[in-house]
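Lab meeting, item 3. Inverse folding demo.
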């Protein structure tokens, strides 16, 4: 895959459970390190609409035919709104990489089993969790529609200032900035999940 190919990173905005019903879903399109476009939708807290919103957001964008892959910042969004990578790939035909700062803990899976009956099945669709070493530490990742070695190369090519690839890092900053007023605020708080980034 070309070094300057366009990728879209996707992350969700800040929310407080039992206060907010929806939050922003942000897609940041980068051409290597250059921000080339921003897409947005709203998703339901603990809902089931993130996959259809990702599909709609990308498919109806002028950038669709230029994008070479999707990088999700975690597989869960807006609480327990879990991305269905099989459905996304089937509709868009784009390889998917899910990146995490750390592997999920047992409490994450227990929470999924408790609050989202089909959640574990959706997570399993993304396959095993791998790790790749970047100049900033290990990045953990899952893949769909692409092999793990190619995904590792993409992550390292786009890990410019942190172990999170630039499209996902920028999407995270924009999402937090527009929903919380400050992109530098940490994930911990009302919008955090008991597991990997998402």
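The presenter then showed the designed sequence:
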């Amino acid at each position: 895959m070309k070094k300057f190919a366009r990728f879209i990173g996707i992350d969700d905005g800040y929310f407080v459970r039992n206060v907010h019903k929806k939050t922003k879903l942000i897609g940041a399109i980068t051409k290597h390190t250059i921000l080339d476009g921003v897409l947005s939708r709203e998703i339901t807290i603990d809902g089931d609409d993130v996959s259809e919103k990702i599909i709609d957001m990308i498919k109806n964008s002028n950038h669709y035919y230029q994008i070479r892959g999707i990088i999700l910042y975690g597989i869960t969004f807006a609480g327990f709104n879990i991305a269905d990578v099989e459905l996304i790939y089937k509709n868009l035909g784009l390889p998917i990489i899910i990146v995490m700062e750390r592997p999920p803990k047992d409490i994450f899976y227990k929470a999924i089993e408790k609050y989202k009956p089909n959640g574990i099945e959706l997570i399993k669709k993304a396959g095993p969790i791998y790790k790749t070493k970047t100049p900033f530490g290990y990045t953990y990742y899952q893949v769909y529609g692409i092999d793990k070695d190619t995904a590792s190369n993409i992550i390292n090519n786009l890990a410019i200032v942190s172990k999170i690839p630039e499209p996902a890092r920028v999407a995270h900053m924009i999402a937090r900035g527009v929903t919380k007023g400050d992109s530098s605020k940490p994930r911990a708080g009302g919008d955090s999940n008991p597991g990997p980034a998402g």
